[in-house]
User: What shape does this take?
Amino acid sequence: MTSSRLRAALITAVTWVLVLMFFFPVAWMVFTAFKPEHQAATMPPTFAPDLTLDQFDAVFARDMLPYLINSLSASLGSTLLVLVLAVPAAYALSIRPVANVRDALFFFISTRFMPVAASIIPVYLLLQSVGGLDNITWLTILYVGVNLPIAVWMMRSFLAEVPREVIEAAQLDGARLGTEIFRVVLPIVLPGVAAAGLICFIFAWNEFFLANLLTAQVARPTPPFLTSFVDGRGQFLAVLSAAATVAIVPVVLAGWIAQKQLVRGLAMGAIK
Amino acid sequence: MTVLMTTPTRRRPARAVPTGQQSRRRRVAVSRALLWPALATSIVLTQIPFVLTIYYSLQRWNMLRPGDRGFTGLDNYVSVLRDGSFLSSLGATVAVTGTSVVASTLLGMLFAVLLDRSFVGRGVARTLMITPFLVMPAAAALVWKWSILDAATGMANWGLGLVGLPPVAWNTELPMLTIILVLTWQYTPFAMLILLAGLQAQDRDVLEAAAVDGAGALRTFGSITLPHLRQYVEIAVLLASIMLLQVFDPIAIMTRGTGGTKTLSYLLYERAFVGLEVGEAAAYGVMTVLVTIVVASVALRTLFKVFSTEGIDR
Assistant: This one.
Protein backbone atom coordinates (compact mmCIF):
# COMPACT_ATOMS: atom_id res chain seq x y z
CA MET A 1 0.00 0.00 0.00
CA THR A 2 3.05 2.30 0.11
CA SER A 3 2.68 3.13 -3.57
CA SER A 4 -0.86 4.35 -3.08
CA ARG A 5 0.25 6.37 -0.08
CA LEU A 6 3.06 7.83 -2.13
CA ARG A 7 0.59 8.74 -4.82
CA ALA A 8 -1.69 10.42 -2.29
CA ALA A 9 1.24 12.47 -0.97
CA LEU A 10 2.13 13.44 -4.51
CA ILE A 11 -1.43 14.60 -5.26
CA THR A 12 -1.45 16.58 -2.03
CA ALA A 13 1.82 18.25 -2.99
CA VAL A 14 0.49 19.13 -6.44
CA THR A 15 -2.69 20.50 -4.84
CA TRP A 16 -0.70 22.75 -2.56
CA VAL A 17 1.53 24.03 -5.35
CA LEU A 18 -1.51 24.91 -7.47
CA VAL A 19 -3.37 26.54 -4.57
CA LEU A 20 -0.35 28.65 -3.67
CA MET A 21 0.09 29.71 -7.29
CA PHE A 22 -3.52 30.82 -7.33
CA PHE A 23 -3.14 32.73 -4.10
CA PHE A 24 0.20 34.26 -5.12
CA PRO A 25 -1.10 37.56 -6.60
CA VAL A 26 -2.85 38.41 -3.33
CA ALA A 27 0.15 37.44 -1.22
CA TRP A 28 2.50 39.41 -3.46
CA MET A 29 0.27 42.46 -3.32
CA VAL A 30 0.25 42.43 0.49
CA PHE A 31 4.04 41.87 0.56
CA THR A 32 4.62 44.75 -1.88
CA ALA A 33 2.54 47.03 0.33
CA PHE A 34 5.23 46.73 3.03
CA LYS A 35 8.12 47.65 0.73
CA PRO A 36 9.71 51.03 0.18
CA GLU A 37 8.77 52.37 -3.24
CA HIS A 38 12.20 51.88 -4.83
CA GLN A 39 12.16 48.16 -3.98
CA ALA A 40 8.61 47.51 -5.22
CA ALA A 41 8.99 47.36 -8.98
CA THR A 42 12.39 45.84 -9.61
CA MET A 43 13.76 43.13 -11.84
CA PRO A 44 14.69 40.73 -10.39
CA PRO A 45 12.06 41.18 -7.66
CA THR A 46 13.21 42.21 -4.20
CA PHE A 47 12.52 39.31 -1.85
CA ALA A 48 14.24 40.78 1.21
CA PRO A 49 13.10 44.41 1.28
CA ASP A 50 13.46 46.87 4.13
CA LEU A 51 9.95 46.33 5.49
CA THR A 52 8.14 49.57 6.22
CA LEU A 53 4.70 50.97 7.02
CA ASP A 54 5.40 54.15 5.04
CA GLN A 55 3.02 53.22 2.21
CA PHE A 56 0.08 52.91 4.58
CA ASP A 57 0.91 56.36 6.00
CA ALA A 58 1.00 57.66 2.43
CA VAL A 59 -2.34 56.06 1.61
CA PHE A 60 -4.10 57.72 4.51
CA ALA A 61 -2.22 60.97 3.93
CA ARG A 62 -3.89 60.94 0.53
CA ASP A 63 -7.18 60.89 2.38
CA MET A 64 -8.40 57.35 1.79
CA LEU A 65 -10.61 57.37 4.86
CA PRO A 66 -13.59 59.28 3.37
CA TYR A 67 -13.65 56.86 0.43
CA LEU A 68 -13.69 53.88 2.79
CA ILE A 69 -16.51 55.49 4.76
CA ASN A 70 -18.49 56.03 1.56
CA SER A 71 -17.99 52.37 0.65
CA LEU A 72 -19.04 51.30 4.11
CA SER A 73 -22.22 53.38 4.16
CA ALA A 74 -23.32 52.34 0.66
CA SER A 75 -22.58 48.65 1.35
CA LEU A 76 -24.04 48.50 4.84
CA GLY A 77 -27.05 50.67 4.00
CA SER A 78 -27.96 48.76 0.86
CA THR A 79 -27.47 45.40 2.55
CA LEU A 80 -29.80 46.31 5.42
CA LEU A 81 -32.46 47.63 3.04
CA VAL A 82 -32.15 44.54 0.86
CA LEU A 83 -32.65 42.24 3.83
CA VAL A 84 -35.65 44.19 5.09
CA LEU A 85 -37.29 43.82 1.67
CA ALA A 86 -36.05 40.35 0.77
CA VAL A 87 -36.80 38.37 3.92
CA PRO A 88 -40.58 39.02 3.94
CA ALA A 89 -40.76 38.55 0.17
CA ALA A 90 -38.90 35.26 0.33
CA TYR A 91 -41.09 34.23 3.24
CA ALA A 92 -44.20 34.87 1.19
CA LEU A 93 -42.72 32.94 -1.70
CA SER A 94 -41.62 29.88 0.23
CA ILE A 95 -43.85 29.37 3.24
CA ARG A 96 -47.14 31.12 2.66
CA PRO A 97 -48.96 30.31 -0.53
CA VAL A 98 -48.88 33.09 -3.06
CA ALA A 99 -50.39 32.85 -6.47
CA ASN A 100 -47.79 32.75 -9.23
CA VAL A 101 -44.75 31.89 -7.12
CA ARG A 102 -42.91 30.88 -10.25
CA ASP A 103 -43.70 34.13 -12.02
CA ALA A 104 -42.49 36.21 -9.10
CA LEU A 105 -39.27 34.22 -8.74
CA PHE A 106 -38.72 34.30 -12.47
CA PHE A 107 -39.13 38.05 -12.41
CA PHE A 108 -36.63 38.56 -9.58
CA ILE A 109 -33.94 36.42 -11.11
CA SER A 110 -34.43 37.93 -14.54
CA THR A 111 -33.76 41.41 -13.18
CA ARG A 112 -30.43 40.11 -11.91
CA PHE A 113 -29.63 38.76 -15.36
CA MET A 114 -30.44 42.08 -16.97
CA PRO A 115 -27.21 43.90 -17.78
CA VAL A 116 -26.67 47.29 -16.22
CA ALA A 117 -26.51 48.55 -19.82
CA ALA A 118 -30.28 48.20 -19.88
CA SER A 119 -30.87 50.93 -17.36
CA ILE A 120 -27.76 53.03 -16.90
CA ILE A 121 -28.53 55.81 -19.39
CA PRO A 122 -31.94 56.78 -17.98
CA VAL A 123 -30.67 56.34 -14.44
CA TYR A 124 -27.78 58.69 -15.12
CA LEU A 125 -29.95 61.29 -16.82
CA LEU A 126 -32.63 61.14 -14.11
CA LEU A 127 -30.06 61.52 -11.35
CA GLN A 128 -28.47 64.38 -13.23
CA SER A 129 -31.79 66.17 -13.54
CA VAL A 130 -32.63 65.87 -9.84
CA GLY A 131 -29.08 66.70 -8.72
CA GLY A 132 -28.58 63.14 -7.51
CA LEU A 133 -25.13 62.56 -8.97
CA ASP A 134 -22.25 62.23 -6.52
CA ASN A 135 -24.74 61.39 -3.78
CA ILE A 136 -24.17 58.36 -1.57
CA THR A 137 -27.87 57.87 -0.83
CA TRP A 138 -28.72 57.37 -4.48
CA LEU A 139 -25.82 55.00 -4.96
CA THR A 140 -27.08 53.03 -1.95
CA ILE A 141 -30.58 52.83 -3.45
CA LEU A 142 -29.21 51.60 -6.78
CA TYR A 143 -27.24 48.89 -4.97
CA VAL A 144 -30.52 47.74 -3.45
CA GLY A 145 -31.82 47.17 -6.97
CA VAL A 146 -28.71 45.21 -7.89
CA ASN A 147 -28.67 42.93 -4.85
CA LEU A 148 -32.35 42.43 -4.10
CA PRO A 149 -32.90 39.52 -6.53
CA ILE A 150 -29.91 37.56 -5.18
CA ALA A 151 -31.11 38.00 -1.63
CA VAL A 152 -34.69 36.95 -2.44
CA TRP A 153 -33.44 33.90 -4.31
CA MET A 154 -31.07 32.86 -1.53
CA MET A 155 -33.51 33.50 1.30
CA ARG A 156 -36.18 31.48 -0.48
CA SER A 157 -33.83 28.49 -0.53
CA PHE A 158 -33.05 28.83 3.16
CA LEU A 159 -36.69 29.29 4.13
CA ALA A 160 -37.78 26.27 2.11
CA GLU A 161 -35.81 24.18 4.58
CA VAL A 162 -37.79 25.30 7.62
CA PRO A 163 -39.98 22.36 8.66
CA ARG A 164 -43.67 23.02 7.97
CA GLU A 165 -44.54 21.66 11.40
CA VAL A 166 -42.71 24.50 13.12
CA ILE A 167 -44.79 27.10 11.36
CA GLU A 168 -48.02 25.22 11.70
CA ALA A 169 -47.42 24.87 15.42
CA ALA A 170 -46.91 28.60 15.66
CA GLN A 171 -50.16 29.20 13.80
CA LEU A 172 -52.00 26.78 16.08
CA ASP A 173 -50.87 28.75 19.08
CA GLY A 174 -52.69 31.63 17.55
CA ALA A 175 -49.44 33.38 16.84
CA ARG A 176 -49.90 36.38 14.70
CA LEU A 177 -47.92 36.89 11.55
CA GLY A 178 -45.34 39.22 13.09
CA THR A 179 -44.66 36.86 15.95
CA GLU A 180 -44.47 34.01 13.53
CA ILE A 181 -41.75 35.65 11.49
CA PHE A 182 -39.74 37.16 14.33
CA ARG A 183 -40.00 34.54 17.05
CA VAL A 184 -40.26 31.30 15.15
CA VAL A 185 -38.94 31.52 11.64
CA LEU A 186 -36.22 34.16 11.82
CA PRO A 187 -34.10 32.43 14.49
CA ILE A 188 -34.07 29.27 12.39
CA VAL A 189 -32.97 30.99 9.21
CA LEU A 190 -30.61 33.47 10.86
CA PRO A 191 -27.50 31.80 9.35
CA GLY A 192 -29.18 32.17 5.97
CA VAL A 193 -29.87 35.85 6.58
CA ALA A 194 -26.22 36.27 7.53
CA ALA A 195 -25.07 34.51 4.36
CA ALA A 196 -27.33 36.55 2.10
CA GLY A 197 -26.28 39.74 3.86
CA LEU A 198 -22.60 38.92 3.55
CA ILE A 199 -22.87 38.25 -0.17
CA CYS A 200 -24.81 41.48 -0.77
CA PHE A 201 -22.23 43.38 1.26
CA ILE A 202 -19.36 41.92 -0.76
CA PHE A 203 -20.98 42.75 -4.09
CA ALA A 204 -21.74 46.32 -3.01
CA TRP A 205 -18.27 46.88 -1.53
CA ASN A 206 -16.59 45.66 -4.71
CA GLU A 207 -18.90 47.34 -7.23
CA PHE A 208 -17.06 49.57 -9.72
CA PHE A 209 -19.25 50.53 -12.70
CA LEU A 210 -21.98 52.52 -10.95
CA ALA A 211 -19.57 53.86 -8.36
CA ASN A 212 -17.24 55.16 -11.06
CA LEU A 213 -19.95 56.66 -13.20
CA LEU A 214 -22.33 58.16 -10.66
CA THR A 215 -19.91 59.72 -8.19
CA ALA A 216 -17.19 62.32 -8.52
CA GLN A 217 -15.71 63.50 -5.25
CA VAL A 218 -18.00 63.75 -2.24
CA ALA A 219 -19.66 60.34 -2.54
CA ARG A 220 -16.82 58.45 -4.25
CA PRO A 221 -16.35 54.90 -2.87
CA THR A 222 -13.09 52.96 -2.72
CA PRO A 223 -12.97 51.00 -6.03
CA PRO A 224 -12.76 54.02 -8.39
CA PHE A 225 -10.49 55.82 -5.91
CA LEU A 226 -7.94 53.01 -6.23
CA THR A 227 -7.30 53.80 -9.89
CA SER A 228 -6.06 57.26 -8.92
CA PHE A 229 -2.90 55.69 -7.48
CA VAL A 230 -1.64 54.83 -10.95
CA ASP A 231 0.83 57.60 -11.65
CA GLY A 232 2.33 58.14 -15.08
CA ARG A 233 5.29 60.11 -13.77
CA GLY A 234 6.91 57.95 -11.18
CA GLN A 235 6.91 54.73 -9.24
CA PHE A 236 3.64 53.88 -7.56
CA LEU A 237 3.47 50.10 -7.16
CA ALA A 238 4.10 49.99 -3.40
CA VAL A 239 1.61 52.70 -2.51
CA LEU A 240 -0.95 51.22 -4.94
CA SER A 241 -0.48 47.80 -3.31
CA ALA A 242 -0.97 49.34 0.13
CA ALA A 243 -4.20 51.07 -0.95
CA ALA A 244 -5.47 47.88 -2.59
CA THR A 245 -4.62 45.89 0.53
CA VAL A 246 -6.59 48.30 2.72
CA ALA A 247 -9.47 48.12 0.22
CA ILE A 248 -9.74 44.34 0.14
CA VAL A 249 -9.00 43.52 3.78
CA PRO A 250 -12.50 44.07 5.24
CA VAL A 251 -14.27 41.87 2.72
CA VAL A 252 -11.58 39.19 2.50
CA LEU A 253 -11.42 38.86 6.29
CA ALA A 254 -15.21 38.78 6.58
CA GLY A 255 -15.32 36.16 3.81
CA TRP A 256 -12.69 34.03 5.51
CA ILE A 257 -14.37 34.20 8.90
CA ALA A 258 -17.85 33.51 7.55
CA GLN A 259 -16.60 31.01 5.00
CA LYS A 260 -19.17 28.34 5.82
CA GLN A 261 -22.09 30.75 5.40
CA LEU A 262 -20.57 32.20 2.27
CA VAL A 263 -20.09 28.84 0.60
CA ARG A 264 -23.51 27.71 1.65
CA GLY A 265 -25.12 30.92 0.48
CA LEU A 266 -23.43 30.82 -2.90
CA ALA A 267 -24.19 27.17 -3.44
CA MET A 268 -27.79 27.58 -2.32
CA GLY A 269 -28.37 30.73 -4.28
CA ALA A 270 -26.86 29.17 -7.33
CA ILE A 271 -28.19 25.68 -7.19
CA LYS A 272 -31.60 25.76 -5.67
CA MET B 1 -24.92 20.94 2.35
CA THR B 2 -28.30 19.87 1.20
CA VAL B 3 -28.77 20.46 -2.41
CA LEU B 4 -31.64 19.29 -4.58
CA MET B 5 -33.90 18.05 -1.88
CA THR B 6 -35.71 14.92 -2.81
CA THR B 7 -38.52 15.48 -0.37
CA PRO B 8 -42.11 15.10 -1.57
CA THR B 9 -43.00 17.42 -4.34
CA ARG B 10 -46.51 18.38 -3.35
CA ARG B 11 -47.12 20.73 -0.52
CA ARG B 12 -49.61 19.36 1.92
CA PRO B 13 -52.60 21.56 2.71
CA ALA B 14 -51.77 23.28 5.96
CA ARG B 15 -53.24 20.94 8.52
CA ALA B 16 -55.26 22.22 11.49
CA VAL B 17 -55.01 25.78 10.34
CA PRO B 18 -58.49 27.29 10.06
CA THR B 19 -59.63 26.37 6.60
CA GLY B 20 -62.31 27.80 4.42
CA GLN B 21 -62.41 30.43 1.74
CA GLN B 22 -62.14 33.39 4.04
CA SER B 23 -58.97 32.46 5.89
CA ARG B 24 -57.33 31.35 2.68
CA ARG B 25 -58.12 34.64 1.05
CA ARG B 26 -56.75 36.45 4.07
CA ARG B 27 -53.52 34.51 3.94
CA VAL B 28 -53.08 35.26 0.26
CA ALA B 29 -53.61 38.94 1.03
CA VAL B 30 -50.93 38.83 3.74
CA SER B 31 -48.52 37.09 1.40
CA ARG B 32 -49.09 39.71 -1.24
CA ALA B 33 -48.44 42.45 1.30
CA LEU B 34 -45.14 40.80 2.19
CA LEU B 35 -44.11 40.38 -1.40
CA TRP B 36 -45.08 43.76 -2.81
CA PRO B 37 -42.43 46.06 -1.34
CA ALA B 38 -39.65 43.97 -2.86
CA LEU B 39 -41.42 43.58 -6.18
CA ALA B 40 -42.19 47.27 -6.45
CA THR B 41 -38.60 48.24 -5.60
CA SER B 42 -37.29 45.90 -8.26
CA ILE B 43 -39.71 47.20 -10.86
CA VAL B 44 -38.93 50.85 -10.15
CA LEU B 45 -35.17 50.37 -10.12
CA THR B 46 -34.79 48.04 -13.10
CA GLN B 47 -37.86 47.77 -15.31
CA ILE B 48 -38.89 51.40 -15.62
CA PRO B 49 -35.36 52.50 -16.60
CA PHE B 50 -35.31 49.75 -19.22
CA VAL B 51 -38.56 51.00 -20.74
CA LEU B 52 -36.99 54.47 -20.83
CA THR B 53 -33.91 53.03 -22.53
CA ILE B 54 -36.12 51.63 -25.27
CA TYR B 55 -37.82 55.01 -25.58
CA TYR B 56 -34.48 56.86 -25.82
CA SER B 57 -33.24 54.38 -28.41
CA LEU B 58 -35.97 55.63 -30.76
CA GLN B 59 -34.82 59.23 -30.42
CA ARG B 60 -32.27 61.41 -32.16
CA TRP B 61 -30.46 62.81 -29.14
CA ASN B 62 -26.90 63.96 -28.61
CA MET B 63 -26.26 65.85 -25.39
CA LEU B 64 -24.00 68.28 -27.23
CA ARG B 65 -26.94 69.37 -29.40
CA PRO B 66 -29.85 69.49 -26.95
CA GLY B 67 -32.03 71.50 -29.36
CA ASP B 68 -31.93 68.84 -32.05
CA ARG B 69 -33.91 66.08 -30.37
CA GLY B 70 -36.78 64.09 -31.78
CA PHE B 71 -38.30 60.78 -32.77
CA THR B 72 -36.29 58.89 -35.39
CA GLY B 73 -37.87 55.46 -35.42
CA LEU B 74 -35.30 52.73 -35.92
CA ASP B 75 -32.55 54.99 -37.28
CA ASN B 76 -30.32 54.41 -34.27
CA TYR B 77 -30.58 50.65 -34.74
CA VAL B 78 -29.72 51.00 -38.39
CA SER B 79 -26.60 52.99 -37.60
CA VAL B 80 -25.66 50.55 -34.82
CA LEU B 81 -25.82 47.65 -37.24
CA ARG B 82 -24.11 49.57 -40.09
CA ASP B 83 -21.29 50.73 -37.88
CA GLY B 84 -18.77 47.93 -37.60
CA SER B 85 -18.18 48.53 -33.88
CA PHE B 86 -21.26 46.62 -32.80
CA LEU B 87 -20.31 43.39 -34.53
CA SER B 88 -16.66 43.57 -33.47
CA SER B 89 -17.81 44.34 -29.94
CA LEU B 90 -20.15 41.39 -29.99
CA GLY B 91 -17.21 39.27 -31.12
CA ALA B 92 -15.02 40.63 -28.31
CA THR B 93 -17.76 39.97 -25.75
CA VAL B 94 -18.25 36.39 -26.91
CA ALA B 95 -14.49 35.76 -27.01
CA VAL B 96 -13.80 37.21 -23.55
CA THR B 97 -16.83 35.60 -21.92
CA GLY B 98 -16.54 32.25 -23.67
CA THR B 99 -12.84 31.73 -23.01
CA SER B 100 -12.97 32.89 -19.39
CA VAL B 101 -16.02 30.78 -18.61
CA VAL B 102 -14.58 27.61 -20.14
CA ALA B 103 -11.18 28.15 -18.51
CA SER B 104 -12.61 28.90 -15.06
CA THR B 105 -15.01 25.94 -15.21
CA LEU B 106 -12.22 23.52 -16.17
CA LEU B 107 -9.89 24.90 -13.49
CA GLY B 108 -12.78 25.00 -11.03
CA MET B 109 -13.41 21.32 -11.71
CA LEU B 110 -9.74 20.49 -11.17
CA PHE B 111 -9.63 22.37 -7.86
CA ALA B 112 -12.99 20.99 -6.72
CA VAL B 113 -11.73 17.42 -7.22
CA LEU B 114 -8.39 18.18 -5.56
CA LEU B 115 -9.95 19.96 -2.59
CA ASP B 116 -12.66 17.33 -2.08
CA ARG B 117 -10.01 14.79 -1.01
CA SER B 118 -9.01 14.88 2.60
CA PHE B 119 -5.42 16.02 3.12
CA VAL B 120 -3.30 18.01 5.53
CA GLY B 121 -4.46 21.62 5.68
CA ARG B 122 -7.49 21.22 3.45
CA GLY B 123 -9.39 23.93 5.31
CA VAL B 124 -6.57 26.43 4.80
CA ALA B 125 -6.24 25.48 1.14
CA ARG B 126 -9.95 26.05 0.56
CA THR B 127 -9.77 29.40 2.34
CA LEU B 128 -6.88 30.53 0.16
CA MET B 129 -8.67 29.31 -2.97
CA ILE B 130 -11.86 31.32 -2.42
CA THR B 131 -9.86 34.54 -1.90
CA PRO B 132 -9.66 35.67 -5.56
CA PHE B 133 -13.46 35.74 -5.65
CA LEU B 134 -13.52 38.06 -2.62
CA VAL B 135 -10.89 40.47 -3.92
CA MET B 136 -12.30 43.74 -5.25
CA PRO B 137 -12.21 43.42 -9.07
CA ALA B 138 -10.74 46.92 -9.41
CA ALA B 139 -7.88 45.96 -7.07
CA ALA B 140 -7.38 42.66 -8.89
CA ALA B 141 -7.20 44.40 -12.27
CA LEU B 142 -4.66 46.96 -11.00
CA VAL B 143 -2.46 44.39 -9.29
CA TRP B 144 -2.48 42.03 -12.27
CA LYS B 145 -1.68 44.80 -14.71
CA TRP B 146 1.11 46.53 -12.81
CA SER B 147 2.51 43.89 -10.48
CA ILE B 148 2.10 40.56 -12.29
CA LEU B 149 1.96 41.32 -16.00
CA ASP B 150 4.15 44.43 -16.34
CA ALA B 151 6.66 43.76 -19.13
CA ALA B 152 9.72 45.12 -17.32
CA THR B 153 9.15 44.31 -13.65
CA GLY B 154 6.18 41.91 -13.55
CA MET B 155 6.30 38.58 -11.73
CA ALA B 156 5.01 36.66 -14.76
CA ASN B 157 8.06 37.60 -16.81
CA TRP B 158 10.36 36.92 -13.89
CA GLY B 159 8.83 33.43 -13.72
CA LEU B 160 9.35 32.93 -17.45
CA GLY B 161 12.95 34.06 -17.04
CA LEU B 162 13.53 31.42 -14.37
CA VAL B 163 12.73 28.68 -16.87
CA GLY B 164 14.76 30.40 -19.59
CA LEU B 165 11.90 31.89 -21.60
CA PRO B 166 12.01 35.42 -23.05
CA PRO B 167 9.82 38.14 -21.49
CA VAL B 168 6.39 38.83 -22.96
CA ALA B 169 4.83 42.29 -23.42
CA TRP B 170 1.50 41.18 -21.92
CA ASN B 171 -0.24 44.52 -21.54
CA THR B 172 0.70 45.98 -24.89
CA GLU B 173 0.76 42.95 -27.17
CA LEU B 174 -1.71 40.55 -25.57
CA PRO B 175 -4.40 42.76 -24.01
CA MET B 176 -7.16 40.20 -24.61
CA LEU B 177 -5.17 37.52 -22.81
CA THR B 178 -4.58 39.78 -19.79
CA ILE B 179 -8.33 40.33 -19.41
CA ILE B 180 -9.03 36.61 -19.73
CA LEU B 181 -6.31 35.81 -17.16
CA VAL B 182 -7.80 38.13 -14.54
CA LEU B 183 -11.36 36.99 -15.15
CA THR B 184 -10.40 33.32 -15.05
CA TRP B 185 -8.50 33.93 -11.83
CA GLN B 186 -11.55 35.59 -10.23
CA TYR B 187 -14.18 33.12 -11.45
CA THR B 188 -12.37 29.82 -10.90
CA PRO B 189 -13.23 29.91 -7.17
CA PHE B 190 -16.86 30.55 -8.05
CA ALA B 191 -17.02 27.52 -10.35
CA MET B 192 -15.07 25.51 -7.79
CA LEU B 193 -17.56 26.29 -5.01
CA ILE B 194 -20.55 25.15 -7.07
CA LEU B 195 -18.79 21.99 -8.28
CA LEU B 196 -17.53 21.22 -4.79
CA ALA B 197 -21.13 21.40 -3.56
CA GLY B 198 -21.97 18.93 -6.33
CA LEU B 199 -19.19 16.55 -5.32
CA GLN B 200 -20.29 16.65 -1.70
CA ALA B 201 -23.88 15.88 -2.67
CA GLN B 202 -22.79 12.59 -4.25
CA ASP B 203 -24.18 9.38 -2.86
CA ARG B 204 -21.21 7.86 -1.02
CA ASP B 205 -22.79 4.39 -1.14
CA VAL B 206 -22.72 4.36 -4.91
CA LEU B 207 -19.06 5.38 -4.88
CA GLU B 208 -18.23 2.63 -2.39
CA ALA B 209 -20.15 0.09 -4.41
CA ALA B 210 -18.15 1.09 -7.47
CA ALA B 211 -14.92 0.67 -5.52
CA VAL B 212 -16.05 -2.75 -4.28
CA ASP B 213 -16.82 -3.76 -7.85
CA GLY B 214 -13.23 -2.90 -8.68
CA ALA B 215 -13.78 0.26 -10.69
CA GLY B 216 -10.67 2.45 -10.74
CA ALA B 217 -10.70 6.08 -9.68
CA LEU B 218 -10.72 7.39 -13.24
CA ARG B 219 -13.47 5.02 -14.31
CA THR B 220 -15.60 5.95 -11.31
CA PHE B 221 -15.06 9.64 -12.02
CA GLY B 222 -15.97 9.25 -15.68
CA SER B 223 -19.06 7.09 -15.35
CA ILE B 224 -20.51 8.13 -11.98
CA THR B 225 -19.16 11.48 -10.83
CA LEU B 226 -19.20 13.34 -14.14
CA PRO B 227 -22.81 12.49 -15.04
CA HIS B 228 -23.82 13.46 -11.51
CA LEU B 229 -21.95 16.76 -11.83
CA ARG B 230 -23.49 17.63 -15.17
CA GLN B 231 -26.21 19.76 -13.69
CA TYR B 232 -23.73 21.62 -11.51
CA VAL B 233 -21.44 22.24 -14.45
CA GLU B 234 -24.36 23.65 -16.42
CA ILE B 235 -25.28 26.02 -13.62
CA ALA B 236 -21.71 27.16 -13.06
CA VAL B 237 -21.28 27.81 -16.78
CA LEU B 238 -24.53 29.69 -17.15
CA LEU B 239 -24.24 31.86 -14.06
CA ALA B 240 -20.64 32.73 -14.86
CA SER B 241 -21.63 33.54 -18.47
CA ILE B 242 -24.33 35.92 -17.35
CA MET B 243 -22.03 37.72 -14.93
CA LEU B 244 -19.17 37.89 -17.40
CA LEU B 245 -21.31 39.11 -20.30
CA GLN B 246 -21.61 42.42 -18.50
CA VAL B 247 -18.05 42.61 -17.28
CA PHE B 248 -16.61 46.11 -17.23
CA ASP B 249 -14.03 46.68 -14.49
CA PRO B 250 -10.91 44.97 -15.89
CA ILE B 251 -11.55 46.40 -19.35
CA ALA B 252 -11.93 49.96 -18.07
CA ILE B 253 -8.87 49.59 -15.85
CA MET B 254 -6.47 47.44 -17.87
CA THR B 255 -7.05 48.05 -21.58
CA ARG B 256 -9.69 50.75 -22.04
CA GLY B 257 -11.12 48.68 -24.84
CA THR B 258 -7.93 48.54 -26.91
CA GLY B 259 -6.60 45.46 -28.66
CA GLY B 260 -9.94 43.84 -29.43
CA THR B 261 -11.21 43.98 -25.84
CA LYS B 262 -14.00 46.49 -26.40
CA THR B 263 -16.93 44.48 -25.07
CA LEU B 264 -20.54 45.60 -25.41
CA SER B 265 -20.73 47.13 -21.94
CA TYR B 266 -17.55 49.15 -22.55
CA LEU B 267 -18.73 50.26 -25.99
CA LEU B 268 -22.01 51.48 -24.54
CA TYR B 269 -20.15 53.34 -21.80
CA GLU B 270 -17.97 55.06 -24.41
CA ARG B 271 -20.85 56.03 -26.68
CA ALA B 272 -23.04 57.33 -23.88
CA PHE B 273 -20.62 58.98 -21.49
CA VAL B 274 -17.73 59.96 -23.72
CA GLY B 275 -19.57 60.49 -27.02
CA LEU B 276 -22.74 61.75 -25.32
CA GLU B 277 -24.82 59.99 -28.01
CA VAL B 278 -27.84 59.18 -25.86
CA GLY B 279 -30.06 57.76 -28.60
CA GLU B 280 -27.43 55.57 -30.19
CA ALA B 281 -26.05 54.38 -26.85
CA ALA B 282 -29.56 53.45 -25.78
CA ALA B 283 -29.86 51.35 -28.94
CA TYR B 284 -26.60 49.61 -27.96
CA GLY B 285 -28.15 49.04 -24.54
CA VAL B 286 -31.23 47.39 -26.00
CA MET B 287 -29.10 45.20 -28.27
CA THR B 288 -26.97 44.17 -25.29
CA VAL B 289 -30.10 43.15 -23.46
CA LEU B 290 -31.22 41.06 -26.44
CA VAL B 291 -27.89 39.22 -26.47
CA THR B 292 -28.14 38.64 -22.75
CA ILE B 293 -31.70 37.36 -23.05
CA VAL B 294 -30.57 34.67 -25.46
CA VAL B 295 -28.05 33.43 -22.89
CA ALA B 296 -30.30 34.04 -19.91
CA SER B 297 -33.26 32.15 -21.33
CA VAL B 298 -31.09 29.06 -21.61
CA ALA B 299 -29.88 29.71 -18.08
CA LEU B 300 -33.36 30.14 -16.70
CA ARG B 301 -34.65 27.00 -18.33
CA THR B 302 -31.86 25.03 -16.67
CA LEU B 303 -32.41 26.70 -13.32
CA PHE B 304 -36.10 25.91 -13.42
CA LYS B 305 -35.48 22.34 -14.43
CA VAL B 306 -33.42 21.92 -11.28
CA PHE B 307 -35.93 23.94 -9.41
CA SER B 308 -38.93 21.77 -10.30
CA THR B 309 -37.17 18.56 -9.21
CA GLU B 310 -36.85 20.24 -5.86
CA GLY B 311 -40.59 20.64 -5.78
CA ILE B 312 -41.79 24.18 -5.43
CA ASP B 313 -44.66 23.27 -7.75
CA ARG B 314 -47.81 23.34 -5.82
